[in-house]
Amino acid sequence: MLCVLALLSAIAPLATDMYLPGLPVMAESLRTSAPSVQLTLTTFMAGLGIGQLVVGPLSDGLGRRRLLLAATVVTTIAAMVCALAPSVQTLIAARLFQGLSGGAAIVLARACIADRARGDNAARLFSIMMIIGGVAPVIAPLIGGALLGPVGWRGIFWVLAGAGFVMVLGVLTLVPETLPVEKRHGGGLAALARNLRYVVGNRVYLGYALTFIFGFGALFAYISASPFVVQNVLGLSPGQFSIVFAINASGMVIAAIANTRLLGTFRARQLLGFGVTVLLVGGAVLLIAATTIDAPSWWMLLVPLFVSVASLGFVMGNATALAQGEVTEASGTGSALLGAGQFGLAALVSPLVGVAGPATAVPMAVAIPLSGAIAMLALVLLTRRTHTA
C-alpha cells in the first residue's frame, strides 16, 4: 500500500520531467510555437494545485478510495489523450486534466497515511514516501531523454499512461478505504467551510504547514536556479550539472533514510528542528560565499548547497506528519492546504530566483536561507507547547 501511495505522490515529477527533453520536438511536430508548448507545463502545474484544493476537502466527506480510483483512471486517460493529441490545444487541455487528477492523487495519498498513522510512525511513513518520491525527479529526465529517440514524445506519454494503469491496479488491489463512514463529514459548502475553519484555526498546524511549505520553497529555489548557477556561474557542463543534481538528490534521500532510522531514538519534532537548523546554517554559508567572494570556487557554493538540500530529508516528512497529526478530523483538507501552499510558493519562487539574470547565484543564495529563516520562525513561534509527537 505504501509503495502504491508513493507512486501516486511521484506522478507530478514523472509527468513534469519526463517529457521536458521533448519540448522542442513537440513544437515542431505540432507546428506551433515554443511558448504554446510551454503552456502544457503551466496548465499541468495549475491543475496540480487546483486538484488538491478541490479533492482534499471533498474526500473528508466522501472517503478516499473512490476518489483515488477516479483520479488514477483520469490520469491514465489524460496521458493517452496527450499521446494522441492532434494539436497543441488538445494537448494543453489534456495536460490540465492530467494535473487535476495528479493533484487529487497526491492529496489523497497523504490523507490515506494520515488516516492510518500518528506521531513518529506517521513521520516514518511520510519519510519513506519522500525517499521514493525523491528518486522520481532524478530519474524522470534521464528516462525521458532515453525514450525520446526510440519512441518519440508521444511514446513518453504512452509510458505515463502505462504507469497510470499500474496505479489503477494498485489502488484496486492494495489500497483499502482508510476513512471510516463514521468519521466522515457531511457534504456541501457548509461542511467545507467548517473543515477549513477547523484547519486554518489550528495554530500548531499552521506552524508545521508553514515549515513544510517554506522548506519546499528552499528546494524549489534550488531546482529553478541551479542549472544556471552550476553551468553559467561555475562553468560546469550539462553532464556535470546532471551529476551535481543527482548527488544533491541522493543527499536528500540519504537524510530521509537516516530520519526513518532515528525516529525510534528522537521525536519527529526534534528531528524537524535539526533539519530546519541545518537548512538555515547551510543557506547562510551559501549566501556569504555568493555575496562576499567575487569568483567563488565550485566547492564554496556546491558544498553549502548540498548541505541545504540534504537537510530537507529531515524537514519534509516530519513537517508533513506533524501538521497532519494536528487536524485528524479533516485530514483531506489539511493535506490540500499543504499541497496548495507548496505549489503556490513554488510558482512564486521560480521567477524570483531569475530576476538578476542567469549569471549570478545571489537570488538563489538569498531565497534558500530566507526560506529557512521563515520555516524556523514558524516552527518556533507557532508550534510552541507541550508536545507528544
3D architecture notes:
With 389 residues, this protein is an all-alpha fold. 81% of the residues lie in helices and 0% in strands. The chain contains 15 helices and no strands. Helix 5 (65-84) packs antiparallel against helix 6 (88-116), helix 6 (88-116) crosses helix 14 (331-352) and helix 11 crosses helix 13. The longest helix is centred in the middle third of the chain and has 56 residues, at 119-174. The two termini are 24 Å apart.
DSSP strand content? under 5%
Q: Order of SSEs, N→C?
A: HHHHHHHHHHHHHHH
Q: Work out the oligomeric state of the chains in this entry.
A: single chain
The radius of gyration computed from the alpha-carbon positions, rounded to a whole number of angstroms, is: 20 Å
Question: Helical element count?
Answer: 15
Structural class by secondary-structure content: mainly alpha
Helical residue percent band: over 70%
Structural key phrases:
389 residues; mainly alpha; globular
